[in-house]
């Protein structure tokens, strides 16, 4: 079964992050210890305890730099592989890194006290920042060339040459940070024949290597470490003996749903069999974890309401000046186990927004949104009052977003397993919100359900922290708001 760590930080991404941490730390450490560059400090002397304290400070700077890289999507393979955009994004990341470092020095002056951080030597600090990002640019070029030139990854053989097998092979190919390499497909007697001139057969990941009766031989010849079963119909067609032979030969054998979940970070609802949910791992609800989650919810909401109080006062005044109507907006939503509750938000639409249309999904450039409401939605400030819902226990800080009863009734009829998202408390933010833009259709709701069920399956404090950190990036760049 896939682990949460494999999705949040796939193996190849983890290797890239660790190597970049080491590189940035070394650049900063050398810049702060070499003669004629650093005029104070312990120098490059590993026997001096002060040297290791300096190394720790440099490692913390490396983490700040990598947060800047992450917020510029440079750990997203689809963005990072674009060589034309890479220099521009690295330049933006360097700017964010300088700002974050400046704030860190002001807040924790003793922790970030560096030999080149003296007011007279600040140009050296900026020089080291620039040098760090130049090294990152060169390292990324070398990293991608090495891994994708030599296909250095776990070799996967897909059992099934039909649409599902080809789709899975393409998904693995399009996500090379996962660390898997498809060596080809194995056909069963029930798989449809590909067209003779099919372009897919020219691609290595879509090449049919033989029949299921030869599975073990093909897997051994191609040095496959994992066999993924992606059959169109398993009943009466599953080559049990051949798969068992592969298992006894030391290969991993798993279902396509597990690989899909590992790479995509969501659950394949449309092709899901109930047995995968029933007999698979996950979906555990531990009392201690639940109590810890509730404690964090209360603490974060109390602190958030106190810190945001001045902002809320200003927002309330602006809403009243912008359009007639109440400051707050209340609406019935569906919570855990189908319980109805009133969600509280700052009003962002006209007071008569649904007088004629009735309940409808929000659209892009929605004419019902007020001037101040558009800013509140993009900045997510309109969500602040929902911390009251968290304090009352109707919501959690992290969880699936609550929907309106009429939409829930409609979606439950049209989308398999939709009610499962109500087995946990809804949240202010969630896994679907940081991975998918605002939904305004049944198709969008189905896609977000895949992410919601993944969260329900793997929910825990560390996963919640990961979602909260990603939410900060979503808010900073205004992604997905309507």
Secondary-structure blueprint:
Blueprint: H1 4-8, H2 11-31, H3 49-71, H4 77-80, H5 86-107, H6 122-149, E1 154-159, H7 163-173, E2 180-187, E3 208-211, H8 215-221, E4 226-229, H9 240-248, E5 252-255, H10 256-264, H11 274-279, H12 287-322, E6 328-334, E7 340-346, H13 371-379, H14 386-392, E8 396-398, H15 405-414, E9 427-429, H16 431-435, H17 442-458, H18 461-476
Parallel strand pairs: 1-2, 1-4, 2-3, 4-5, 8-9
Antiparallel strand pairs: 6-7
Oligomer, anyone?
single chain
Uncertain runs: none
How would the global form be characterised? flat
**Count, helices:** 18
Distance between the amino and carboxyl termini: 36 Å
Largest sheet: 5 strands, parallel
Mean pLDDT figure = 82
- Percent range for helical residues? 40-55%
Which radius of gyration do the C-alpha atoms yield? 26 Å
Number of domains: 3
Please state roughly what percent of the residues sit in beta strands, choosing from under 5%, 5-15%, 15-25%, 25-35%, 35-45% or over 45%.
5-15%
- Helix and strand succession? HHHHHHEHEEHEHEHHHEEHHEHEHHH
Sequence of strands across the biggest β-sheet: 3-2-1-4-5
What structural category arises from helix and sheet content?
A: alpha/beta
- The total beta strand count reads 9
């Amino acid at each position: 079964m896939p682990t949460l760590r494999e999705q949040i930080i796939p193996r190849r991404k983890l290797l890239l992050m660790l190597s970049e941490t080491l590189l940035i730390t070394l650049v900063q450490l050398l810049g702060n210890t070499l003669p004629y560059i650093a005029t104070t400090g312990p120098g490059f002397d590993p026997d001096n305890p002060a040297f290791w304290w300096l190394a720790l400070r440099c490692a913390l700077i490396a983490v700040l730099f990598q947060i800047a890289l992450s917020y510029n999507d440079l750990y997203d393979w689809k963005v990072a592989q674009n060589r034309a955009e890479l220099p521009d994004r690295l330049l933006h990341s360097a700017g964010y890194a300088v700002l974050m470092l400046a704030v860190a020095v002001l807040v924790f002056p003793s922790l970030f006290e560096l030999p080149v951080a003296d007011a007279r030597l600040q140009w050296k600090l900026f020089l080291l920042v620039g040098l760090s990002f130049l090294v990152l640019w060169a390292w990324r070029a070398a990293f991608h060339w090495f891994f994708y030139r030599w296909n250095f990854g776990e070799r996967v053989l897909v059992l099934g040459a039909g649409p599902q097998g080809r789709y899975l092979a393409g998904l693995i190919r399009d996500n090379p940070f996962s660390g898997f390499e498809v060596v080809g497909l194995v056909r069963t007697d029930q798989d449809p024949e590909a067209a003779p001139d099919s372009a897919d057969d020219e691609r290595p990941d879509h090449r049919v290597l033989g029949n299921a009766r030869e599975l073990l031989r093909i897997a051994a010849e191609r040095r496959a470490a994992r066999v993924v079963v992606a059959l169109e119909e398993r009943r009466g067609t599953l080559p049990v003996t051949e798969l068992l032979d592969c298992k006894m030969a030391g290969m991993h054998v798993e279902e396509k749903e597990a690989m899909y979940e590992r790479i995509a970070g969501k659950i394949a609802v449309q092709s899901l069999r109930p047995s995968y949910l029933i007999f698979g791992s996950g979906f555990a609800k531990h009392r201690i974890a639940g109590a810890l989650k509730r404690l964090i919810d209360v603490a974060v909401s109390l602190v958030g309401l106190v810190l945001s109080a001045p902002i809320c006062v200003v927002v309330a005044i602006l809403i009243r000046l912008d359009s007639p109507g109440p400051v707050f907006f209340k609406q019935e939503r569906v919570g855990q186990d189908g319980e109805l509750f009133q969600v509280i938000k700052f009003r962002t639409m006209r007071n008569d927004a649904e007088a004629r249309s009735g309940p409808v999904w929000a659209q892009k450039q929605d004419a019902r949104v007020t001037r101040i409401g558009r800013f509140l939605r993009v900045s997510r400030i309109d969500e602040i009052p929902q911390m009251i819902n968290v304090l009352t226990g109707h919501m959690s800080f992290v969880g699936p977003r609550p929907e309106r009863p009429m939409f829930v009734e409609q979606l439950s009829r049209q989308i398999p397993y939709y009610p499962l998202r109500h087995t946990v408390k809804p949240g202010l933010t969630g896994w679907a919100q940081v991975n998918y833009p605002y939904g305004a259709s049944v198709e969008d709701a189905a896609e977000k359900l895949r992410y919601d069920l993944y969260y329900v399956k793997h929910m825990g404090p560390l996963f919640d922290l990961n979602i909260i950190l990603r939410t900060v990036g979503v808010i900073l760049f205004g992604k997905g708001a309507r």
